[in-house]
Amino acid sequence: MEESAATYDPTHYQRPSVTVDVVIFTLINQELHVLLVQRRHWPFEGYWAIPGGFINMDESLVESARRELAEETGVRDVYLEQLYTFGEVGRDPRSRVISVAYIALISADAQKIRASDESTDVRWFPVSGLPEQLAFDHDQILAYAISRLRSKLEYTTLAFQLLPELFSILELKHIYEQILGEELDKGNFYRKIKESGLLEETQLTREGRGRPTRLWRFRRDRAGEKQFVFRWREDRLSR
Amino acid sequence: MEESAATYDPTHYQRPSVTVDVVIFTLINQELHVLLVQRRHWPFEGYWAIPGGFINMDESLVESARRELAEETGVRDVYLEQLYTFGEVGRDPRSRVISVAYIALISADAQKIRASDESTDVRWFPVSGLPEQLAFDHDQILAYAISRLRSKLEYTTLAFQLLPELFSILELKHIYEQILGEELDKGNFYRKIKESGLLEETQLTREGRGRPTRLWRFRRDRAGEKQFVFRWREDRLSR
DNA sequence: AAAATAGTGTCTTTCAGACATTATAAT
DNA sequence: ATTATAATGTCTGAAAGACACTATTTT
């Protein structure tokens, strides 16, 4: 009750620990990946876990998340969004831990990313091939992060955060397919994305095996202006 | 970093306090109301605040929210949803407080609700007539709760939580209008809600001044089955 | 010329929105 | 009959979906 808060004496109450966990997504070879770290000690020794750590008393939650992100990947200035706060009693065997989970999207060309595939204890996993069982309740956190990413994709410009500065429309389509887990019609995709006015055409092209592809840039100025609704098939919402 | 968590010694870290705040919505006279409590002590003495309190070490976050809710209103078995976690450094002048905010929807016929309009320190406010300035960052929390309620209304069956067991379709429409803050077309509303298959017709009617109105029941069994998308006008999403 | 990839055009269906009409009660 | 409220019907325009077609490159 609010009354008890007003007469609050800090020494009276036991306090839980508070951590921030960051589910870090990126695209590697056009495929959606997540960064996981392997635990070295009890509990869940050897298990893969979502990177995270305790908050400092002088930093806000987002600041904590940014710090974790920088420590794990060396990347700054990325899209960060609070996902959910997990606070079941037994979720950490050591003590009562409340964990505020964040989602981070790293653009594909921010590949100054430290954590590499080679490293034994920090690694990018494709979402299609995750480890069987993660530490703590991290399976649950990760599953929720992925489902949130899917649904937000439909009514935000979030997918662009994952792309490099320049990209082709078919690459963008590919990301949507990756995350939604379903094929999209090429023509309809072209139509809709162009009508949106979110893309700026460049004079650049990229060569391939067939016809070269035109490169586009995301118009960040227009992003906030008008919410972009990318709703391909209503029934997808039911998943 | 995860490594530091593994070697964690509880005495090393200072811990913040964790509270749960519950934004409680209900319908009174067909209008959306929120429950607020008036603070008796420093800080923010005399200001209205969202009810909440410290979590206990042996209860999960939702359990804390349910307890607060029961303490404040005496109501059980309601819809509860986690809203957001607020953790700015200076949000509580007494100490570092992380607050996990929840939304509660109380059905209109659960009016065994204790807190009454008469009471001086606990009161229902219509969302159209809230106090000017709330305690702490509660303005922000409340604004966010209302906006979340609005947007969730469009793709969930959430509005039904606010209604009594039996209701007319026009009452339902009225709730949508209340929460969305805009008029809806009667015919289109009838069409859409009936197509959804979410309502079960009863043989009951209610008398009024004109033609009596048919009463319906919400089909909770179908609620999960198929996500209900109630999207009236796309441009509303931009708010 | 064939294969490969990029990009456009068009027809159909679906559905939201607007609005007119009918139904059933009280006065 | 008039008023009041409830409920249904219908027309239209916009946009999603399906799919055929054209364009530009390499081999």
From TrEMBL, chains A, B:
Residues 15-150 form the Nudix hydrolase domain. It holds the Pfam family NUDIX. GO terms for molecular function: hydrolase activity. It comes from the Bacteria. InterPro entries: NUDIX_hydrolase-like_dom_sf, NUDIX_hydrolase_dom, WH-like_DNA-bd_sf, WH_DNA-bd_sf, WHD_NrtR. This is NUDIX hydrolase. The keyword Hydrolase applies. Keywords: Hydrolase.
